[in-house]
């Protein structure tokens, strides 16, 4: 398991985060690049050469696929399952949910194990490079991939299960198991790259939140989330609270007061409660 990252120069971190912010605001965000920049937050040793090597590996895998196979979306799904699931051994198990590496693209490429969303990113990036009509499907609790026309003829596959094809009934069972709710058409809408990145960062935050010794991981996951053009406003509150928990009382109090100013326009009572949290944080210095 990756350890807490070694201290790195502030300018190196700032440059990498600027690259992340710029990539997130590109007209066509590069999903693989964004994922690899997340990996570099967890492992600063993943430098530009290491990130390039991961992109080259995705290119190599794509080169092993036949071009435009006869049989349409189903053939693409079968070829990806045979290459990535069977020959290369990409897949997942419940144990992978306990490892931070399962949320880091370069580690998933190395270990060939990961969470459903990271394995789906591998499938999508390999398939896209080979010319496949591929997209991500952010089902609640279990990310999968689709091939073909989302509004027409398409097939679904589960990279976590080695590329197992999914019927509509299978997708309904996955959603019901995760939420207890029925499958809706909105759940089947292709996920855009920034939605995928935010969901990945949410997974990392949840992993770290359950392990207080890894609060630094939770902090950088929050800070990257806040660099995305669209993110839940509550993440600013979560970051402020985390700073206080980490003993950074003044910084946390300042963040709380800034968030209270944002909230005040819509909920004066909530803003007052947040200001009280800020005062309590400052009082911890006395």
UniProtKB/TrEMBL annotation:
Annotated stretches, region: Disordered: 1-21
Domain Protein SirB1 N-terminal intervals: 75-202
InterPro entries referenced in this protein's UniProt entry, alphabetically: SirB1_N
Pfam families assigned to the protein according to its UniProt record, in alphabetical order: TPR_9, Transglut_core2
Source domain of life: Bacteria
PANTHER family referenced in this protein's UniProt entry, alphabetically: F-BOX ONLY PROTEIN 21, SI:DKEY-261L7.2
Entry's family note: Belongs to the UPF0162 family.
The protein's name: Protein SirB1 N-terminal domain-containing protein
């Amino acid at each position: 398991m990756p350890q807490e990252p070694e201290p790195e120069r502030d300018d190196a971190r700032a440059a990498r985060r600027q690259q992340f912010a710029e990539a997130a605001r590109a007209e066509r965000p590069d999903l693989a690049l964004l994922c690899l920049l997340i990996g570099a937050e967890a492992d600063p040793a993943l430098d530009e050469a290491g990130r390039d090597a991961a992109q080259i590996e995705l290119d190599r895998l794509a080169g092993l696929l036949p071009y435009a196979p006869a049989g349409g979306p189903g053939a693409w799904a079968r070829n990806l399952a045979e290459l990535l699931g069977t020959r290369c051994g990409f897949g997942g198990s419940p144990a992978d949910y306990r490892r931070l590496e399962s949320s880091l693209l370069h580690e998933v490429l190395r270990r060939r194990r990961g969470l459903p969303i990271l394995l789906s990113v591998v499938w999508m990036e390999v398939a896209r490079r080979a010319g496949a009509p591929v997209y991500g499907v952010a089902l609640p609790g279990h990310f999968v991939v689709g091939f073909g026309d989302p509004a027409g003829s398409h097939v679904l596959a589960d990279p976590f299960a080695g590329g197992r094809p999914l019927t509509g009934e299978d997708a309904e069972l996955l959603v019901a198991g995760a939420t207890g709710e029925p499958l809706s058409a909105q759940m089947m809408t292709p996920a855009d790259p920034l939605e995928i990145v935010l969901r990945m960062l949410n997974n990392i935050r949840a992993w770290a939140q359950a392990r207080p010794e890894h609060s630094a991981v939770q902090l950088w996951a929050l800070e990257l989330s806040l660099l995305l053009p669209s993110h839940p406003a509550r993440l600013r509150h979560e970051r402020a609270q985390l700073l206080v928990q980490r003993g950074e009382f003044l910084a946390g109090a300042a963040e709380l007061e800034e968030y209270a100013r944002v909230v005040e326009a819509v909920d004066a009572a909530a803003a007052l409660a947040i200001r009280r949290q800020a005062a309590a944080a400052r009082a911890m210095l006395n």
